[in-house]
């Protein structure tokens, strides 16, 4: 996964730093420096503290670099995972739509990605592709 991320984004340079945030379940401490210079990388974790299955607190940790502690958050990623599960039945844990062939799951993800990026109105009549100046219309 990190190979694909590093290949698809503008790599950090000079004062242009890259930030990664994860929950306490996934630790990218040893993986991120394999793909990005540690001097240009900020990495923080948001660890959820649970008691008897109930969320009782959150602990924000700076792992390395210098991210602002208030910026360490995972809600955007968690929200998008929820959207994927809502829209692609094959990603729901218990479903009749389970993908028996990996290629069908990949096809469903590609179709969703195209719709989301080019057809889905997310901000004032604009799609993500319009916001990134890839296209000028839905």
Overview of the structural elements:
This protein is of the alpha+beta class. The chain has a domain at 2-73. The chain has five helices and three strands, in the order αβαββααα. A three-stranded mixed β-sheet has the order 1-2-3, with no helix packed on it. Strand 2 and strand 3 (54-64) form a beta hairpin. The longest helix has 17 residues, at 102-118. The protein is globular, with a radius of gyration of 18 Å. The mean pLDDT is 88.
Helix percentage range? 25-40%
Averaging pLDDT over every residue, what do you get? Answer: 88
Percentage beta strand? 15-25%
Number of helices: 5
* Succession of helices and strands: HEHEEHHH
Largest sheet: 3 strands, mixed
* E-strand count: 3
Main sheet strand line-up? 1-2-3
What best-fitting shape do the alpha-carbon axes yield? Answer: globular
User: Which ranges are low-confidence, i.e. pLDDT below 50, for 5 or more consecutive residues?
Assistant: none
Quaternary organisation of the protein chains: single chain
Structural class: alpha+beta
Alpha-carbon Rg, integer: 18 Å
Cα-to-Cα separation, first versus last residue: 29 Å
């Amino acid at each position: 996964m990190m190979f694909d991320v590093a290949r698809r984004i503008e790599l950090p340079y000079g004062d242009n730093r890259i930030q990664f945030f994860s929950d306490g379940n996934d630790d990218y401490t040893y993986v991120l420096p394999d793909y990005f210079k540690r001097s240009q990388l900020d990495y923080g974790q948001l660890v959820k503290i649970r008691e008897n299955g109930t969320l009782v607190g959150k602990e924000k940790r700076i792992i390395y670099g210098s991210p602002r502690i208030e910026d360490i958050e995972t809600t955007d990623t968690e929200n998008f995972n929820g959207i994927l599960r809502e829209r692609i039945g094959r990603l729901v844990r218990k479903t009749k739509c389970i993908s028996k062939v990996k290629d069908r799951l990949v096809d469903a993800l590609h179709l969703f990605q195209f719709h989301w990026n080019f057809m889905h109105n997310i901000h004032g009549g604009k799609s993500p592709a319009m916001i990134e100046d890839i296209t000028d219309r839905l």
